[in-house]
Amino acid sequence: MRISLRQLAVFEAVARYESVSRGADDVALSQSAASMALKELEEGLGIILFHRHGRKLTLNENGRRLQPMARSLLAQAHEIERITQCDELTGILRIAATETIADHVLGPICARFLRENPAVQIKLRPTSWQDVLDQVESMSCDLGFADSPCGRASLIFEPILSDELVIFAAAGHPLAHGRPIDARELATERWCLRAAGSSTRHKLTLGLASFTASISVAFESNSNQAIKAAVREGLGLGCLSRRAVEAEFAASQLVPLDVTGLALGRVFGLLRPRNVYRGVLQDSFAALVLSLVEPDVAARFKLPEPAIGSADDPRLSSEPISRISHMTLGAPVPAN
After folding, report:
1. What's the CA gap between 289 and 283, in Å, rounded?
2. Is the pTM of this model over 0.90?
3. What CA–CA distance (Å, rounded) separates 280 from 5?
4. Nearest to 208 by CA among 246, 178, 237
5. What whole-number distance in Å separates Cα of residue 229 and Cα of residue 90?
6. Cα–Cα dist 112/5, whole Å
7. Which position among 124, 152, 199, 236 has the lowest Cβ density within 10 Å, counted as fewest Cβ atoms?
8. How far apart are CA 209 and CA 211, in angstroms?
């Protein structure tokens, strides 16, 4: 055979980190040994697998085709090794999740899983919606959790929990009067929002498109804490998951606004790559998550919303958004 499992392990690690040195550390090899293994793999296959940009390596088309096959073979090899071992789960589980899910949903689930499987280590990385999709698709993580579905054909999205975005203000804001607010009253407000590319920003902007031609963003951040602090300081209105602001509501630090005519419900879900063999560790954690699925959430689940585009997409900025007012929820999303 022209290739070995060691070569595939090096390839998978280097592809995940886009770095020979970090990939070598991951598989406990020297950098020179990892480089040699990659060279032997490419020579054995007769193809180049990476674009090389100095020390950074990114997969080319050949590498992207090989990656899921390599990941599947390595997972199956790990399962073969377990045949002669005890039934105890071992290994590292890498999870990427959006900040709200990481902070307010996954903690108790991870704790329960680790109590039942003490030989397992979980590495949970809070990140953006777009990055979760990219990591799951590139298999840089084992499982992903996102607060909005996507239309990428390479990914499977399984709804687990419903969520609601809420618009909120500082306690002294003129709209924090406790009475219902027509969505059109928000047209002249300034906003403190998550950065362009987030599903929260997309959901709000799309919802407001029917009521106002543009929004004015005073402050944006990838941090929920920073957004809440900005709103407390009176920089503008905020919009986050109700889970992320419940404590501030209870302490009267922030005030939820009762906005009529604006639908801000969404669904949290588990993301996995399609057509890739998954080991017992990944499947065991996924099974625990899916055993806790909120009743009827699948029945309320809708098709993905229009894709979030690049930074100059009008849905992601303070540019006029009247051009997207015709879009309907449930439209298919083109793969990125």
Report:
1. 10
2. no
3. 19
4. 237
5. 41
6. 33
7. 124
8. 6
